[in-house]
C-alpha cells in the first residue's frame, strides 16, 4: 500500500512539473506534437470552456476525448450519449451484456469508498465526471489528475442525464434518449397488459442474507409497477419502498406472477440460498410457482434498473420476452 501511494505521489509530481513546463512555453513531446505544431493546431489549453459544478465554476476541455465516469451509473449515462469512457467503477466482475462489447477496451477499477487513483491516472483522462455525493471527499486528489466536474444528486436519472449532457455538449441526444425510452415503455406496458391484464406481480431480489420485495415507491418497483403498469399485490404497505423479508413471510404476498432476480448470479452463497428456497414447501405452494409464472431475470443486467436508461431499455426487452414465453398462448 505504501508503495502504491509513493508511486501515486511521484506521478502527480511529474504531472505538475510537465504542466509547469508547458506554462513556460516549453514544448512537451506527445508523439504527434510535431504534426500539431506544423498544422497550426491550437493547444488543448486554449480549447476550454467554463462549466458550473458543485465545486463552483471550472474550466474543462471543450471537446473531451478521454472521459472517466465515477459511480456505477455515470458510465451508462456517458455511453447513452455516445461517449465510451476510458475507465469506470464496476460492481460486478463483468460488465452487463449491453455494455460488454462497447466497453471492451474500458478499464475496470472495481468499486470502493475511495477510487483507485493510480488506475485513473493510468487511464490519462482529460475529464472526470462524478456525482458529488460519491466523490466530493476525493475531489482534491481527482483534480490533480484531470479537471473534475462534480454534479448534484438527483431523484430522477433523467435529470442526471441532462446534467451530464450539458457538460459534454450532448443535450439534444439526452432528450432523444429520454423520449425513445418513453415510447418503448408505452409499447411494453400495452403488451404486458394484453398478456396478464390485472393479475398481480411481485418483484423480489434474492440476496446473500435476505429477500427484498420492491414496492412501487422505489426506482426498481416504480419501473415494474408504474412505468410498465403491472399491478402490485394489494397488501404491500403503501408507505414502504422496499421490504426485507424471510421466506416464511413471502406467502403473505402471494402474487399471480413472480419476478425473481438473484442479486449476483455468480455468487455461490446466493445461488445456494436460492436452491434451498426452491426445495421448500413454502416456495412450492406459492401461487406463481404452481402456475409456472416465475420469471428469472439477470443480476448485473438489472443492477441499474430504474437508475439508468440502458438498464431500463434492456429490462423492457427482457421482461416482455419472459412474459410472452409463458403467457402468450394461455
From TrEMBL:
It is found in: Cell envelope. Transmembrane segments: none annotated. Residues 66-327 form the Fe/B12 periplasmic-binding domain. Pfam families: Peripla_BP_2. Keywords: Signal, Transport. InterPro entries: ABC_transptr_periplasmic_BD, Bact_iron-sidero_bind. Residues 28-50 are annotated as: Disordered. It comes from the Bacteria. Residues 40-50 have a biased composition (Polar residues). Belongs to the bacterial solute-binding protein 8 family. This is Iron complex transport system substrate-binding protein. It comes from Paenibacillus tundrae.
